[in-house]
Amino acid sequence: MATSEYTPQELMVAVAAREIRDGELVFVGMRLPILAYGVARSTHAPHARALYELGLMRDRPPTGFLGTMGDPPNVTGAIWATRMSNVMALLAQGKVDLGFIGGAEVDRFGNLNTSYIGDPARPATKLPGSGGGADIAIMAKRWVTLMSHERRRLVDRVGYVTSPGHGDGAGWRVRNGLTGGGPAAIVTTLAVLRFPAGGGEAYMASIHPGVAVDEVLQRTGWELKVADNLRVTPEPTAEELAHMRRLDPEGFWTRSR
Amino acid sequence: MSKLATMAEAVARYVPDGASVAIGTALEPAIPFAAGHEIIRQQRRDLTLIGPISDSLFDQLIGGGCVARVCAAWVGNVSEGLGHCYRRATEQSQPRPLQVHDYSNFSISLALWAAAWGSPYIPTRTLLGSDILRTNPDLNLRDGSVQVRPVRPDVTILHAQRADAEGRAHLWGPLGLSEEAGLAASHAIVCCEELVTPEVILSDPNRVLLPETKVVAVVHEPGGTHPAPLQGFWRRDHSHYREYAARSRTAQGFQEWLEEWVLAVSDRREYMTKVDTAGLRVRRHLHSAPVDYGDE
């Protein structure tokens, strides 16, 4: 029941939703993952639960649009309204299965930079910072980041590691005492990148419909490895699209502005 | 003892030049924008701002020239992206240089808890492997864990749904790090949507956010969180954030915005006449069941 009428962001939401397994505790974050949680909970993951770092836990997704996780409709129907440190307690205990993190820059080992482009003492660009990103990156069992696929964003090595991925390669997280499993996927506007078990370097696991492999390689800032069994990313189903459009009727997050 | 004050009085008395100020501690909701605007109008200088994610309020205070240092997890405009005043300050020292101490949400909460508990530091595993350890001198890697040093605000400014004149406030919905920020601070200023009698507050003491002994001023300031939402009272004004993002892109555009929404406005009452209050006011009220504090 696929449909070709969808935006790249809607495909990313569908991919992100499928990363959520039924029964999991998910650190949701902002923007597209808010929609992804709603889609997952309404389709294949009816027993998932969501955490929001300002101090909320939900089971059912909210019924209306959210501009932020703190919008009043996200509190209505919450199963826990509390302080941030209580939500972080679950994360620190290793109870969070999956987290979503936004990023400005990601590198071949999945390290994220959301802090500084250039010298931190005199940056060329000051980005907003970690938010809860570093906490999720270090302590969630696994995490996923979503990003526009551009050469300036997918870089060989980030200049500043705000939220650590696999550091400098396999084994780095264990050596440095990081308790969570690290990045599982980078979902972009062109493809889905994954990591080998135990960490290491990202490779292209699936490519979005209608995208050429060469285009992905050219728009990636390192020599991207491609899976032997490269697949085409399944399109969003009509059901998935209906759920995300119900949660965001005007396409605030899924249409280009 | 009544601690009632106007916003102008509370800021004049308790937010001096050079003060460290925690504000916007519930993250996206309940942000005391009215207090921030009064700080800008009174031209406070050399402040240290402390907070997690205070939506665009930190950006406005930085653009207003009030801030020397930021201790925060995130500064920008939550639904729109980058903070343009924050960028100008860090990249070009405009309107003045800005020192940044980066935190994550968890670690700024721990820094405030350390201060609240009188602990020299709190050890944690968060931030292991992050370059935040390299650029924030108040976070140290020692014996395989991160030591978070206390961050002690001179004053924490909160906006609650209701409070009494003694400063006992009921805040509901997600609290973010409002409690640790209030406990860590030397003083707290409580702004409130509704000023109520002590009987209303004391009917539910579990919901009192802070001990009254921390509170030095109570400001009855309806609409004081706009454009941030407040559970039960105000929806988020998304278009206001979008307009701010567009207009603050240039220093001149920011100055014009500031003139229109802050400098040429005498107080929050006048500000609210410029806002679509009918469209933003929460209409669907959902009251919780009362609890029984029966004692004999």
SSE layout and pairings?
The complex is a heterodimer of chains A (257) and B (296).
Chain A: H1 8-19, E1 25-27, H2 32-42, E2 49-52, E3 56-58, H3 72-75, E4 80-81, H4 84-92, E5 98-102, E6 105-107, E7 112-113, E8 116-117, E9 125-126, H5 133-139, E10 142-147, E11 154-155, H6 172-175, E12 183-188, E13 191-194, E14 203-207, H7 213-218, E15 225-232, H8 238-247
Parallel strand pairs in A: 1-2, 1-5, 5-10, 6-11, 10-12, 14-15
Antiparallel strand pairs in A: 2-3, 3-4, 6-7, 8-9, 12-13, 13-14
Chain B: H1 7-14, E1 20-23, H2 33-41, E2 47-53, H3 57-63, E3 67-74, E4 76-77, E5 81-82, H4 84-92, E6 99-102, H5 105-117, E7 122-124, H6 132-135, E8 139-142, E9 145-148, E10 155-163, E11 169-170, H7 178-184, E12 187-195, H8 198-202, E13 215-220, H9 238-247, H10 251-263, H11 268-272, H12 277-280
Parallel strand pairs in B: 1-2, 1-10, 2-3, 3-6, 10-12, 12-13
Antiparallel strand pairs in B: 4-5, 7-9, 8-9, 10-11
